[in-house]
Amino acid sequence: VGGAYSYDCSFGYIPNVELMKFISLATFGSYLPSCPEVDLNSQEMNAYHKAFLTYSFLKTPESMNSEYFCVSQHKLFNEHLVSASGNPALVMRRKKHTEKEVHAHLISVVSVRLREGYTIREISLTKGGTQLEVKLVLLWKHNMHIEYLAAASWPLDPAKRTTRVEVTMEGSYDILHDISCTQRKPITSPYRTSVIRRFWNTLQSINQTDQMLVHLQAFNSIPENYMIPESTKNGVPLFYIPPGSTTPVLSLQHSGSKDSPQSQFASYWKPILSMDANFWQRWLHMHRIAIILEHDMPVPKHLHTAGNNGRYSTIQCRISHSALTSLLRDWSSFVLVEGYSYVKLIYSSSDQPPTSFYLVRLISKAPCMVLRLGFPIGTPAHVRNKIVDELREQILKLRFPHRVQNKEVTPKTKRKIVGHPSPSKSPSIPAPKPALSDRPCVVVLNKPLEKLLIRYEKLPLDFRTPFILNMENFLQPCNSAVPLSMAANRTASSTLASLSRYFLHQRWVWAVQSSQGAAVAMQAVAHILSMLSE
């Protein structure tokens, strides 16, 4: 994007100084145009300490100035080409994009913008000290910025959730012309068209992010948002996801008129359920609990040798998975989707409505699974840490039963005993609970080791080459529904492809049957594999 005036070249003196400076600013880093001398006798932080050890959300006016990209080594060649003062076409111009009101608190709005990569440009009191203005800027390109102005009445009132927002584009004349006048004169360059499309997608994402923030902060403003329907209280999931789809569908038990409390309750939680966990950090404080499920016992007989039908058995984690989902179902306030998403309401007192909530999303594939907990912006850190620690302790207490007759024993034994005996009836002898063994159901990981888990979904054609991701099966439109299984395979394949680029990745194949000597029986091979597995 840009016209004839482009200063991306440095004439071979230094490769793309503007790009290096832009990356340092956009990623909260530092760029040193020179190497200042260090006073070894000084006890204060020198320039290198401040550049590499300090962190700031505030951008100085000097760093945001367009002349910041034009230093002495450029002016040695052609000041008219690279300097904005010598070329009016390079002067940063401003154009207002939108102005609106966001029904959210100013602190939450600023927090969301900072999580998206914005930096604070200026904080000031206007209108005689009755209004607080916070200017944030997103460095989208070295000659293109997005300014986000958030203003609210001062002093801030937590009860008033109204913030005036103004979005302004900043850039050179050529860039603003290309972005604003594409309808009048279409651009034929595919690269420039792609850059313009990505820029407009960034502007649209601002509105979408603000809408989700308003939706989350409206939780306790309407009773229908937190009044749980009776069937949902009894453990019926609010939604279910059909096979081969990613769109949640309302359960039949909750279907009714659009104006019914059940429908209003479902309409509030459906957008929250559809949130991509990869973007939770925009609106939520995130915590994670990584676990490995223990496999079922005993190990299948035909694990290393084929059965009568020629098929092999697989190792399952059904008992531990059922125990985990049963714990989450009993521990949460209600279930959004069974085995996938749960909600827990937070109460300040038992006789008051809930003040907030948090989500629990169960992701990844067994046996390695991750529980992601999301708390709305503003939840105190000590409250979040206490909840996460309590849930981790409950997970660590899960145990296998001594004897498992069928896969439904664990969920029944893990369910809470609801109800109280009637005083008019004689007290009955409680049924003895099945004895639990000392074997835990899960192993909790303190490090994100699931990122390094290598999965072989298919038999590779060449064992000597590292994994190469094939994107042909995943090139689908963004608005098309991708099955959950395909999305999970894509995530696992992408992780394995990344590992193959950064780590030494080799496979070994041992040939048991040699050309000389007696053939090794399959029972012996199975015994060797069993010993290696144990």
UniProtKB/TrEMBL annotation:
<feature type="region of interest" description="Disordered">
    <location>
        <begin position="410"/>
        <end position="434"/>
    </location>
</feature>
<dbReference type="GO" id="GO:0005777">
    <property type="term" value="C:peroxisome"/>
</dbReference>
<protein>
    <submittedName>
        <fullName>Protein SZT2</fullName>
    </submittedName>
</protein>
<dbReference type="InterPro" id="IPR033228">
    <property type="entry name" value="SZT2"/>
</dbReference>
